[in-house]
Amino acid sequence: MIIFAINLIAHIARGVPIKKNVVCNQFEISDFMQDRQKISPNPADCLYESNNEYEIPNLLLEKQAGKLLLPLVAYSAFRPKSSAQTVHFYVDDYRFNAIWKNPAKLLNGNVISVVEPNTSLFFTTPIAYGLHQIYKKRWIARYWQECGLLVYADLNVSSKFWEYNRMGIPDGYNAFATRGYANRHNDLQHELDIARDISGLKTPNLIVYGGGSKVKKFCYQNNLLFIHDLMTEKNG
Q: Lowest-pLDDT range, 82-86, 91-95, 168-172, 173-177?
């Protein structure tokens, strides 16, 4: 109990909100530690099934992430020997270029769950290139699932790619993440609508990373988990 209290205080000090039934760590729910023992870097060499004409791989319903396991770290700060249990990619693209060559790196630490890599897709991005990026992130996410990791589907793409980005996410999936922006409230609302449509739930399991006070208010109004982005707060 003392160890749990110390860790809880540490998480609050770092600006990570603690909400009942939404955020947990290894001292609260020991069942998740059993998942760690099932992780293997050697999945079968095979082709993944797809629900779309572009053959973007399907995510596995049985390997969707649940509650947010702490500590949560950006991939740029991840180290194999760290205590991080969840890793996200809401950082500059160049900071995780190496993951495409060595996706097994995340399997060498204590990681149990991961957010799909978030590559930058703008309205000016050609559709062909955007599809390539979506394929890459969904393929690597499925690979991680086959290895035993639990996955949050990334919804943070330009409106031009909203429909393409749904490909490979099966109906009933209920583990999502996105990046919040103070000046893109309508986009966040649409991403919430996408998560609702796919999950079939009014209150889906959607994590929103950063975006400041306006995004934080939106999350509380919609019972979503808001995670502070310290860089956003520092800059504005």
A: 91-95
